[in-house]
Amino acid sequence: MCLTICVNTVVSSVSIPSTFAVYQFYSPVMAPTVAFVTGANRGLGFGLVKHFVASPNYLVVAAVRDPAHPTAQELSRLPVGEGSSIIIVKYDAGVEQSAFDAVKEATNKGVDHIDYVVANAGIAKVYPLVKDVKRADIVEHIQVNVLSVVSLYQATRPLLEKSITKPVFAIMGSGAGALGRQPPVPSAAYGASKSILPWYGIRINSEDEWLNTFVLDPGWVQTDMGNGAAKGWGLESAPDTIDKSTGGMVNVITKGTKEQYGGKVVLYTGEVQEW
């Protein structure tokens, strides 16, 4: 606000053309907060986009594998806060170059900085015991659930450095990947892949002092994956709703500090979990 008043005073006193004032004295306060969410067209990703874009002055980059899919089109029908909007970009977590292409597409659509990245896209295709798991399944889950996070970090890092706030790189974890509190369920491909993520969360948070990086634990959520696991336990559904989980995670992302959460595993409630 002060910058705007000062600009108007300068412009009126020296008769500088208004176009000069607009481009030379543009206030970053007016720029939108930019959130970049992968796997944005369903489950937790869709819920995260819904909560981000409901706030005023947000630009949400929704990264999806198939922008033409009906679930991706549903994103454009979400209610938005004042001054907020969504852009959809193509992103395939199984392809290394895709993260860089998605960021390039976003910049071509006007994105010049990113404040929050949520590496949410992932797979959970099989739930074998260790004695039964196939090596190919382990490799596929690590490629999509782990290597994609590394590529996404590398691709978004330059724009995170231009953040107008304190930037966050949040990695979607899972209780299935916990070591100290490992659930007694067969998950020798998915769980093993998720167990690697806290290592990268710690390293990125340590290597980039300006970036708040941590792993999110969404809880046991009523997604296709969560409900499928619940049925395997004889339950009708998982206990946590998508809205409750994603609303909590957005709160953690937007209000937490590096001192609180950097390099840690954080439940959607804000509680720090053991790895």
UniProtKB/TrEMBL annotation:
Q: Highest taxon of the source?
A: Eukaryota
- What InterPro entries does the record tag this protein with? NAD(P)-bd_dom_sf, SDR_enzymes, SDR_fam
Gene Ontology MF terms in the entry: oxidoreductase activity, acting on the CH-OH group of donors, NAD or NADP as acceptor
Cited PANTHER family? SHORT CHAIN DEHYDROGENASE, SHORT-CHAIN DEHYDROGENASE/REDUCTASE SDR
Listed name of the protein: NADPH-dependent 1-acyl dihydroxyacetone phosphate reductase, putative
Instruction: Look up and give the organism this protein is from.
Output: Aspergillus clavatus (strain ATCC 1007 / CBS 513.65 / DSM 816 / NCTC 3887 / NRRL 1 / QM 1276 / 107)
